[in-house]
Design goal:
alpha+beta, 6-stranded antiparallel beta sheet, 3-stranded antiparallel beta sheet, 19 helices, 13 strands, 50% helix, globular
Length: 464
């Protein structure tokens, strides 16, 4: 088969999928009769987590309907498994809500915008990421007080941009798709005409601030001096230094294990990056609570130094469990769940942290666990969703839609997906309808969480 024949075959695959699963079918959300109890899903997840941290997770999810949505990836994964799918698979994020996009430093030291959370990544239906993004925009829009027309316009614009971008990528050469990325300058160039002057100024300030978010800034934020050397300061329960978690002999044993972890982690890096990490010495360790949905999984930050006291490096070692998608799309081909996260991130992300790696090690409880490792801060920037007016959320949603299409185009059949989506607005209209229906479902599930907390079924610790 020559190149043109192959291209036509891929397009035919998309048209056949459209005939089998009409785009209008994506509008439907009706909870099945055997839908799992959402609180039972959270209780099941809690079994493998640090017990004293689980109430913090529940408290954070109880803060708002959007916070609940952020922490409810496992709940929505089960729901998405009951929705129509074209049968075309890509590497999916698995938790593609709008707060899991953001800016970070590329290896060539530009601020790029991409998906930035891959804890749940696996090969799966591309529609699942699209619908989670769309529903997140609807839920966030409700929280901001936007009316139904405003929310519909935001979701439709984001998914329309996904469709248009996928069609653009379908026409590009393979290398052009791989090199495509959205940086800070590109965001302004692409959407400057639609953005208000105040939003542009706020964006410029955020970009300027992001350039200061590195290990040097983390050193001043998280550390204090102990006997003339920096140590990570405890701020329990969110940050707990190793000496406050374990007594002396156990601490020394665990720190030796951490040094072994760092040596093992280095083997997952390319030789040049391995050489770079070898030039840093380990100094201190602390447990850190991160995110909303991730609270309760084991997460450590390690303080290291290179040339001298002005050359710090913070590495974050985060536990990787099985993806919440695995029961519905199959287990990962990687035996190490940290490697699953890293390989999915490298495949989907425009540019990844140069120190991204993985390792398996026994924890404090001697249970073997998988971890992935990255820099704690590297020019990280997140959107201020709580202050977004409708116009800004529309622009932000479009940036997320373009970015998600680029990520899917790198790993899946972009020609088939583009042909399935078509040139008209039918798909985004259907997904916008789904997003509103699922926002209703999220509201009901959130109320069940509040009821479970009030009844004492689950414990929650708020304000953390």
């Amino acid at each position: 088969m020559n190149g043109n024949d192959e291209k036509q075959a891929r397009a035919a695959k998309g048209r056949a999928a459209r005939a089998q699963v009409p785009r209008s079918s994506h509008a439907v959300w009706e909870p099945p009769a055997d839908r799992p109890d959402p609180i039972a899903v959270l209780e099941e997840q809690a079994k493998s987590r640090v017990p004293e941290l689980v109430p913090i997770r529940h408290g954070r999810m109880a803060a708002s309907e959007f916070a609940f949505f952020r922490g409810g990836a496992a709940i929505m994964a089960s729901d998405l498994a009951a929705t129509p799918s074209s049968g075309i698979r890509v590497q999916v994020c698995g938790d593609a809500h709008l707060a899991n996009f953001g800016g970070f430093a590329s290896p060539d030291r530009n601020l790029v915008f991409s998906v930035n959370d891959f804890d749940e990544t696996l090969p799966g239906p591309w529609e699942w990421d699209v619908k989670r993004l769309a529903a997140s925009l609807a839920v966030a829009g409700r929280e901001r007080g936007f009316d139904v027309k405003e929310r519909g316009a935001i979701v439709t614009a984001a998914i329309s941009r996904y469709r248009e971008a996928m069609r653009e990528f379908a026409a590009k050469r393979n290398l052009d798709v791989w090199y495509a990325r959205l940086d800070a300058t590109g965001i302004l160039d692409r959407w400057r005409q639609d953005a208000k002057r105040k939003a542009i100024r706020r964006f410029d300030r955020a970009v300027e601030k992001a350039h200061t978010r590195d290990s040097i800034r983390a050193l001043s934020k998280y550390c204090h001096q102990v006997n003339g050397e920096p140590r990570i300061a405890s701020d329990p329960p969110l940050i707990v230094a190793i000496e406050d978690l374990l007594p002396g002999d156990e601490r020394a044993t665990f720190e030796r294990a951490v040094r072994n972890v760092l040596r093992g982690y280095r083997r997952s890096l390319p030789p040049d990056r391995r050489r770079l990490v070898e030039q840093f010495r380990f100094l201190h360790l602390a447990r850190k609570v991160v995110g909303v949905g991730s609270v309760g999984t084991r997460c450590w930050i390690a303080l290291m130094f290179g040339r001298d006291g002005d050359d710090p490096l913070f590495l974050q070692m985060k536990e990787a469990e099985d993806s919440v998608l695995a029961p519905f799309v199959g287990a990962s081909k990687y035996r190490n769940q940290g490697q699953r996260v890293v390989e999915g991130q490298r495949l989907m992300q425009a540019a990844s942290d140069i120190l991204l790696g993985w390792y398996r090690t026994p924890g404090i409880d001697e249970t073997p666990r998988d971890f992935y490792v990255r820099q704690l801060w590297d020019w990280k920037i997140s959107a201020d969703i709580e202050r977004m007016p409708p116009a800004t959320m529309t622009i932000y949603g479009q940036a997320c839609g373009w970015t998600l299409a680029r990520a899917h185009a790198r790993s899946g059949d972009r020609i088939a997906i583009a042909e399935y989506l078509g040139a008209g607005p039918r798909f985004e209209a259907a997904v916008a309808e789904f997003a509103e229906a699922y926002a209703d479902q999220n509201e009901r599930d959130y109320q069940e969480l509040i009821t479970a907390i009030c009844s004492g079924r689950i414990a929650a610790r708020e304000g953390l």
